[in-house]
């Protein structure tokens, strides 16, 4: 596995575990009602902070967003947190796409730190179908895929639909892990949810690397003007 994804997987795993553990003990210590009262007292500021934080995890790659899913689910409840996180995904994905399109490949390579990896990603993203496959296989790496998409000729509408649609799967599962803590779900079961997501991410990365190696070499495409 490339160093970029190895580090990202380790950071996301560590942050998720720490967040779940913190929520678990906070709920045991202060109770569900106290946590909800605290977040309700923040008013509109609470949702704005969650949305901005989620967007920033895509824009400022490789800033990890793993802690935001269970935290949002626990503090806002599943449905509200899901809406806020999807909005954050849309904003972050849009900004990353157009930053990449404006600043070009050299900028993205500096963020990824691996031009070979970026080349593999771009080799699979020449069409809408190719982008969909890449996005699914790199489901845990929405930041780098968003920046890579800006380097292709892919138009914005199919990009953002796929970006948000694929993100729904981990967003739903990981947000549920936080909200379920408030329903007295066992700590072990919550851990199993994330373990399953980690396995899915590792398998997806394996198939991505295999498919990328099978792609014939092609000339780099220049992104259309913004």
Write a structural description.
It is a single chain. The chain has 226 residues and is mostly helical. The chain has one domain (3-214). The protein has 11 helices and no strands. α1 runs antiparallel to α11 (187-214) and α3 packs parallel to α5 (78-103). The longest helix is centred in the first third of the chain and has 28 residues, at 3-30. The radius of gyration is 18 Å and the shape is elongated.
Quickly list its features:
11 helices; mainly alpha; 226 residues; single chain
* Helical run tally: 11
> How does the helix and strand content classify structurally?
mainly alpha
Q: What is the count of β-strands? A: 0
Percent helix among the residues? over 70%
Calculate Rg over CA atoms: 18 Å
**How would you describe the shape?**
elongated
Ends: how far apart? Answer: 33 Å
Mean pLDDT comes to 75
Can you give me a brief rundown of this structure?
The chain contains 11 helices and no strands.
